[in-house]
Amino acid sequence: MLRSIGPQACDEPRAESATTVLNACDGAPANIQALTPFRAGWNQRDLERKLGIENSVNLASNENALGCSPAVTRALRTQTELVSRYPDSAGQALKQALHKFYGVDTDRIILGNGSNDVLDLLARTFLRPGTSALHSQYGFAVYPLVARASGAESIEVTAKNFGHDASAMVAAIRSDTRLVFIANPNNPTGTLLEPELVVRVLERVPRHVLVVLDEAYDEFLPAAQRSAAHRYLDKYPNLIVVRTFSKAYGLAGLRVGYAFANPCVCDLVNRVRQPFNVNAPAQAAAVAALSDQDFIKRSAELVRDGMRQVERGLGRLGLEHIPSAGNFLSFRVPHADTIFQHMLQQGVIVQPLVNYGMANHLRVSIGLESQNQRFLSALSAALTVSN
Ligand code: PMP
Fold it and tell me: Most exposed residue of 52, 159, 242, 307, measured as fewest CB within 10 angstroms of its CB?
């Protein structure tokens, strides 16, 4: 008789191999068993169902409150035939569009199913047991996850004022270190490492250590502060610049990220990469998104205005925040978990930061003016209730 395999299957001992592998899950390597799953934000539909409401506001995942460019919706509507065909494995049209926009040659471009995929590919290509990767305290949670999943040691370097300490990061490099992850701006703190300090890191790291500069939020910076790191690739062959279409371009649901790196790095990553890792509608949408820089300008302006609105509102509530260069802001609040729950009850979703060792902070994404106001009102009500 066939027995169904339910969620309990992992708890059932297998008698015939009890001395070696006790059950299916015990067979996974210790580094996999020790992983803490990434904590994604609350699902908006689940919350609405639970509360019986229809107007919740999700400010937990640093998405673009304007949605995406009309050029993207047009591309998706008119290219429906893409759904039934395999995508271009090499992503040539998108690489050409990126080349045209940034001036980086196509053999220096890696495409990923979101930039998380690029980060994972880099870890799988360059890390293994016996190697290590560095990231900053309060750095983006995916760095230690991909490093450990590859069997490497993940080393956390103490932050300075919630941001990267460039000198400490360089000093922490060991002979077995292969990757140094730097998010600029960083999520969840929003801190920015000045270009001079990025260069200082690049000048000081040994050439066999790859510096992964994750610029997921670069498009939100004022024009004069936007990163030019992709122009340093010749000078620093160990530099990898990672970017995404999820944030300012508003394509988080389609999953498109990319990296600029030296051709030998791209070639190695290409051997590891799944051949169709970026789907066809996503590639077409990314090309269309890149063509509408006016949308990026409007998105950055919305965030700049919204940031001021939220900063002022937090100030009125007597709450401290960490100045942010991203499209989100982390603020300090007593009893953050209780406040988070009270806000959920009002249909406002923000991000708790307990997994980042910031149990007294919450992170809010900047939304439309009305959404920011709704956030501030819900926070104010939550503070009153919890006092
Ligand atoms: N890097 C940073 C710093 C991020 O905050 C995020 C998204 N939260 C990512 C990378 C990954 O984004 P995506 O996979 O959607 O490109």
Answer: 52
CA-wise closest residue to 274 among 86, 128, 31: 86
| Residues found in the chain | 387
Distance CA 349, CA 206 (A): 43
What's the CA gap between 344 and 81, in Å, rounded?
40
Label residue 212 left, alpha or beta by phi (over 0 means left) and psi (-120 to 50 means alpha).
beta
Counting ligand 1 atoms within 8 A of each CB, the residue from 59, 61, 119, 140 with the most, and so the one to mutate, is 140
- The CA-atom distances, in angstroms, between 368 and each of 178, 267, 299, 304, 374 are 41, 41, 10, 11, 10
CA of 83 to the centre of ligand 1 (A): 25
C-alpha closest to that of 184 among 153, 212, 142: 212
Give per-residue pLDDT as tens, 121-150.
999 999 999 999 999 999 999 999 999 999
pTM check: above 0.90: yes
